[in-house]
């Protein structure tokens, strides 16, 4: 009798864990980088490969880093919203062009609009790895001290922008 109860009990425990897992939102993967300094980088700019941008260039301001690629279908979904946000001038948006072809990326921005103050090229994906990029698009909100305060996995939506990102940006901008 006991030899049947042990596998049954193990199965029930496993079933409970699976049920709990099914209720979780995969877009809310906790990032170990939240409230930690953003990884340092120094990368060539997309529009002018002779110019370099460093993560330290943005110290003293709240900014967004949007990881994107021309081959990314979901990036196309969020792009009009990023263009609107850039036109509103609420926060500077910088692009991290991830594992992409330079010419194709430039054509993509010309076709769909360019919301980025500067877009930098991460052709080998090393900076993306340092930021813990799971896939594109991903967006980070970084504060005046260079600390990551939020990570949006997947496309930025009107809902995520209004409920999470913009209130956080306003709060961070108001801090001394």
How would you describe this structure in keywords?
176 residues, alpha/beta, Glutaredoxin, 5-stranded mixed β-sheet, two-stranded antiparallel ribbon, 5 helices, 40% helix, 19% strand
Question: Could you explain the architecture of this structure?
Answer:
This protein has one domain: Glutaredoxin. The chain has 176 residues and is α/β, with parallel strands linked by helices. It has helices at 2-22, 73-88, 102-112, 126-130, 158-174; strands at residues 42-44, 52-54, 63-68, 93-98, 119-122, 138-142, 148-153. 40% of the residues lie in helices and 19% in strands. The strands form 2 sheets. Strands 5-4-3-6-7 form a 5-stranded mixed β-sheet. The mean pLDDT is 91. The chain is built from 5 helices and 7 strands.
**Major sheet: arrangement of strands:** 5-4-3-6-7
Q: Whole-number radius of gyration?
A: 20 Å
Question: Structural class, judged by helices and strands?
Answer: alpha/beta
Treating each run of at least 4 consecutive H or I residues as one helix, how many helices?
Answer: 5
Number of strands: 7
Q: Could you state the order of secondary-structure elements as H and E?
A: HEEEHEHEHEEH
N-end to C-end Cα span: 68 Å
Major sheet attributes: 5 strands, mixed
Let me know the CATH homologous superfamily.
Glutaredoxin
Question: How many domains, in number, for the residues?
Answer: 1
The percent of residues in helical segments reads: 25-40%
CATH topology type? Glutaredoxin
Q: Poorly predicted ranges (pLDDT <50, ≥5 residues)?
A: none
Give the strand content.
15-25%
Overall CATH class: Alpha Beta
CATH architecture: 3-Layer(aba) Sandwich
Mean pLDDT across all amino acids: 91
Q: How would you sum up the global shape?
A: elongated
């Amino acid at each position: 009798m006991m030899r049947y109860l042990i596998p049954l009990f193990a199965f029930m425990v496993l079933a409970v864990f699976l049920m709990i897992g099914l209720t979780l939102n995969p877009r809310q993967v906790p990032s170990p980088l939240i409230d930690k300094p953003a990884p340092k980088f120094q990368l060539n700019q997309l529009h002018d490969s002779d110019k370099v941008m460093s993560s330290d260039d943005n110290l003293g301001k709240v900014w967004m880093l949007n990881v994107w690629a021309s081959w990314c279908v979901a990036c196309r979904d969020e792009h009009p919203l990023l263009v609107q946000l850039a036109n509103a001038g609420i926060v500077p948006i910088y692009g991290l062009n991830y594992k992409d072809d330079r010419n194709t990326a430039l054509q993509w921005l010309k076709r769909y609009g360019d919301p980025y103050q500067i877009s930098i090229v991460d052709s080998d994906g090393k900076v993306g790895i340092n930021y813990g990029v799971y896939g594109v698009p991903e967006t980070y909100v970084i504060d005046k001290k260079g600390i990551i305060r939020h990570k949006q996995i997947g496309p930025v939506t009107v809902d995520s922008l209004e409920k999470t990102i913009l209130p956080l940006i306003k709060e961070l901008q108001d801090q001394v």
